[in-house]
Amino acid sequence: MGGEEEDQESPLLGIASQPDEPEEPLKRTGITIISTNLLCDCYRHPDPECGPARIRSYMEAVKVYLGEKSQKVSGVLVLESLWGGAAAYVITAATSMRAIQKSNCYHREGHQAPCAYGDTFYMLLFGLVQIVMSQIPDFHKMEWLSVVAAMMSFTYSFIGIALGFAKVIENGKIMGSITGVPASTLANKLWLVFEAFGDIAFAYPYSIIVLEIQDTLKSPPPENQTMKRASMVAIFVTTCFYLCCGCFGYAAFGNDTPGNILTGFGFYEPYWLIDFANACVVLHLVGGYQIYSQPVFAFCERWFTKKFPNSGFVNNFYTIKLPLLPGFQWNLLRLCFRTAYVVSTTGIAMLFPYFNSVLGLLGALNFWPLTIYFPVEMYFVQKQVGAWTKKWIALQTFSFVCFLVTVVGFIGSLEAIISAKLS
């Protein structure tokens, strides 16, 4: 279908430890399918199947259908979503690297060894790697990167599911309970449920790249028909992975399920399989970070170029030739801005290294405006849906319910971050 769709958040990352709402991924699947179908009809303008104008990106669609003011708002939200996703990747990569060292420590020194490691060193290491990789020119044109990311994603997902299943057999029983993680008070239970909403919202960022993927399709048949069928299959397959990882993770570890279930098998043998799976996660995220970051780099660098056309700092390029490597061009703006960007994502990850809570907050912030509100409003304009018609009322009700989900997810995740920071 295209390259970037493989780099949405993978099943093992942030979904396993959400037992408070086990049916929520199915609900979110239906919501994502509805949102995607609305966006698919916005690709051609004015007619969704034979309109002469092609709309090739989410932000372009918002501009065409809703105007420049809405485009600016959506642009800020998209960039914030991409920046937040990159910060979440720093946290995730650090937890997987720490899990590799912990697994090796237990194997070498025994299960009674303390084997306690922090995240800071691994975040700094990941950040240094990203500073170097962010200077690679035309990184976004490396098609093989999506292939490698897809292979890594499927590999560690299958390993995680298999290990969870094996752990359940080893335990001889299903851990946890149907009521989910216990809490001391009803209020605390509600916070956990609200945070779960945000976590699951983060796992479905598919809508903002639908039009970019659809632009790679050929017709006939009309692109919107092909994209709707392909999206249906992709979303259901993704949801199956989410549910398998979440259910087997909770069945294996119960109330102690970690956000990334691969980090929970510290005592498990063969330890090298745990190391391999977590290494696949890290390799996936090394490339995934750049996939999330390249649109931010391109947008900001274009803005600086337009704003300062006569600046040598912005526009002068220099060629560097390293031994055994082809020469490549760079400039001072790229060096400074991209380095500062990586430092900012690494710094925020170090300040708030709370895996599930951060994912939940990011998911809640972007779920309703990007996945629901803008697609619904663009669909109204595309299909010329009149106010107070049955379709208008149904979609506005749908949008309002999703808005409430965003609000409770944001509140729950923010409370979890504040509580973790103060504890």
TrEMBL record:
Which is an annotated Pfam family here? Aa_trans
Question: Which InterPro entries does the entry mention?
Answer: AA_transpt_TM
Question: What GO CC terms are in its UniProt record?
Answer: endomembrane system
Give the membrane topology, semicolon-separated if more than one: Multi-pass membrane protein
The entry's localization annotation reads: Endomembrane system
One GO molecular-function entry: symporter activity
Q: Any idea which UniProt keywords this protein has?
A: Amino-acid transport, Auxin signaling pathway, Membrane, Symport, Transmembrane, Transmembrane helix, Transport
Report the transmembrane regions from the record: 73-94, 115-132, 144-166, 232-251, 271-292, 361-381, 393-418
Q: Does the keyword Transport apply?
A: yes
One biological process term from GO is:
auxin-activated signaling pathway
Question: Which superkingdom is the protein from?
Answer: Eukaryota
Every copy of the Amino acid transporter transmembrane domain together lies at: 31-418
Tell me, in a sentence or two, what this protein's role is. Carrier protein involved in proton-driven auxin influx. Mediates the formation of auxin gradient from developing leaves (site of auxin biosynthesis) to tips by contributing to the loading of auxin in vascular tissues and facilitating acropetal (base to tip) auxin transport within inner tissues of the root apex, and basipetal (tip to base) auxin transport within outer tissues of the root apex. May be involved in lateral roots and nodules formation.
Put simply, this protein is called Amino acid transporter transmembrane domain-containing protein
What organism is the protein native to?
Answer: Quercus rubra
Lineage of the species this protein comes from: Eukaryota, Viridiplantae, Streptophyta, Embryophyta, Tracheophyta
